[in-house]
Amino acid sequence: xxxxxxxxxxxxxxxxxxxxxxxxxxxxxxxxxxxxxxxxxxxxxxxxxxxxxxxxxxxxxxxxxxxxxxxxxxxxxxxxxxxxxxxxxxxxxxxxxxxxxxxxxxx
Length: 107
Prior knowledge:
Elements: H1 2-20, E1 26-31, E2 36-45, E3 48-60, E4 63-69, H2 75-81, E5 89-90, H3 96-106
Parallel strand pairs: 4-5
Antiparallel strand pairs: 1-2, 2-3, 3-4
């Protein structure tokens, strides 16, 4: 399970580095004790306030749950490229019914 945490850490850091090239105010928040990982935005662009969660990943029962993704990046594909098995990636932002159907398609 710790190896999944390590892969999640590496992916999130890589993601943050790519964001940082365009957005120096992206904030990475890790709760390693409870296995929650967030990328937040907290800034102003001219007179426009930008605040919110760009991405949330959790590790639950040894699987990486993608809880939220407001980016254009396909997080599941990126994790697979890092060596995470598709069976260890759960699309938590999808309903249980849709997730069950997606699992059936993958097998």
